[in-house]
Every structure is written in C-alpha cells, then in structure tokens.
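Lab manual, section 2.4: Encoding a predicted structure.

Procedure: take the sequence of the chain (233 residues), apply the prediction step described in section 2.3, and record the output as structure tokens. A sample record is shown.
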Amino acid sequence: MTEGTSKRAVVLASGGMDSATAAYVAADEGYDLYLLHTSYGQETEGKEYECAERLADEIDAEDFLRVETGHLSAIGESSLTDDEMDVEDADMDSEEVPTSYVPFRNANLLAMATSYAEANDCEAVFIGAHSEDFSGYPDCRPSFFYAFQQVIDAGTKDETEIDLRAPFVEWSKTDIARRGAQLGVPYEHTWSCYREESPACGTCDACAFRLQAFQNIGVEDPIEYEQRPDYTD
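Recorded output:
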C-alpha cells in the first residue's frame, strides 16, 4: 500500500444479501471497495449481475469488475449450473450436501479475488459465507477459510499482505439480516433465489433461509416472491 492512501478491500459480490452486507461491513470499517462479481453459468446470473452492479453504485465502489467464466458450468454436478438437475425445495434440517453445491466454487472465486486484490494493493478480501452455509457447503467451513489464508500467504509476493475476511462465518442468516438493517443495506436490490430471476420462488434453499431471516427480525423482505411460506424458528 502506498503511504498516505486509504485502505482497500476486494469484496466478492454475488448480488445476494450476504455479500451486500459484507460490503457494507467493509465500508463501515473504512475500506475503499473493489467489487468482484463472477458469472459462471448459474441459472439466475443475469439478475445477480444486475444486483451486484447496483450495489457497486449504491456503495460508491472504487471499482467493479465482472468476470465471466464457463468452466464451473462446464464441469457441472450442480443444480445451479446444470439444466438437467432440478433445484430442490428447501430442507432446512438436512445435513446432506445439497445439489446446489458447486464443486469447490469458493476456491475458484477466492483465487480470482486474491489476484484482483494483489494487483490493486488491497489489504483484505471479504466473502459473505455464514454458518448455515457451511452446514451444507464444505467450501464455507471455517477450516477452509483458514487453509485458504495460508494459500494466499504462500502464493503472493513477500511484501503482499492480504487478510481473508469471512465476518459472518459464525453468524446465522438472521444475524446478517439484523446487522444489514442496522447498516442500511439496500436489500431491495439483492437477489438470492436459485430458480427464478423474478419473482423469487420462495421455496428453494436460498429463498427459505432469506425469508426466515427477515421473518425472525420482524422485517418484511422487500423483494417480490411467488410465495412466502412461514419459516420462522
């Protein structure tokens, strides 16, 4: 970092509520933001890109980079990228890895984010993963982020120092929604649904956890849903 400049951070901006809240947390900590959005063939990539771009404008990001890559879709084995696999309805008590898991996705995304961070003298990379993610997605576990920090340290220049931040890794979705409401995150410009670009289905895993979070804090989710089941704890 050049002496006299403010600190900088890359935020992985999916277009969803978790990454939007992570961006507002980073801004609240005084970072200038460099948002990285990746389109990899997911079903709702158009809507996610629209929301990520809007977030960059809302938060006055220093830079917004969209990377389009087809390799995760070509690899397949995820209902998010494979047209022959159906997105399942939410099973919030299941301990199985859901079909929406994209094999080793976060390692791919964090590798790109680290490159972007090092090229722009950023001190941190933020990702919005949380505790309910790592119950089903192995690349959201705290041990994964700890290990990836070691990869960053070993694979960048000696003078490079990049802190991998997963501020919600021990938080629930409800905790995130509550913090985001405090920070004024514009959730009306975020998208979580795995199935549809409008309206959100209300029944996939992503919709269920999102709706439950808003219901738990007593705030109406501002996006449109085809249906809004009661998911309160």
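Check your result against the sample. The two ends are 45 Å apart (CA to CA).
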